[in-house]
Prior knowledge:
With 328 residues, the chain is α+β, with helices and mostly antiparallel strands. 37% of the residues lie in helices and 26% in strands.
Amino acid sequence: MRPARFLALWMLIVVACAGSALAQTSIYTVTVPVADTSAAVRDQAFATGLTQVLARASNGADPRGKPGYAEAMKQPGGLVQQYQYARTGGANGAPLSLDIVFDPGAIRRVLAVGDASVAAPKPPVLVIARDASGKLLGQQDLVPLAQMADTRGYQIVVPKADSLPDPAAIAQGDPGAVATVARRYNTAMVLVGKIGDDQADWTLVSAGRTGTWKDSGEARAALLANGANAMADKLDRQFAATQGGSSSGKVWVTGLRSAADYAGLLATFQNDPSVKSVAPVGATADGVLLNVNASAPLARLVAAYAAGGHILAADAHDGADLAVRWVP
């Protein structure tokens, strides 16, 4: 086993056995060089570390302009979950370093100030994972994955015993299968996994779009934690991509088959308080082009609709700023 992966596994074992937050490798953990252990130096290290963690949690954006930054910097130690000094041997001109773990919930609350999109809870992720024998893994089997996902700001759910979705159809991004999951579990985000003794195959489905990856060479607990981290990385990028862009433009909708479908589509937009106006500007046998004017980025609105089970992502369409599929 490679040294870096052995270290990650060891950290996971420490978390499980001792509950130590310092053992979690996440965006909320940072190391800051310090000159001594005085309270003033420690507080400055907390401030430096908080700025770094807020930047990571904002996908690299400078956090100093965010509405909640100034207030958080008045008492950065209040956001610290745990800290620990370590000797560095004089590296970077400092004999010590301070390992700091910030509380994930507190960080999310800072970023949520003045931003309704961050404050709104993210949909859960449905996890359909099986072991090498084909056994469906339950909540207890997925504890390492759930813990790491929670650290990254995501909650997971597992299939209900009486309504197991078709994992093959979901992994292929089948619109009907994904829509059924969305209506049943209030999420269009599904993680499908096959976990062996030392390898894992993952497929992440988000609003009908799929991505796959593999992992190997580690024990099951580490494979599960790694899967959660990779999943969170991908979802973080997707959420970041929807936070900007125009709040008005043209949305192409395919999949409409009846007047009832069209009425349901319009109702989805009209019932959203962020939408100021929506009107059709063109139609073909394949779909309809809507002109939408809103008070929030269109990409964010459309992405949120996926959890309802009727609007999923679609391939780009000429003349449209966004393209989606309506699933009856």
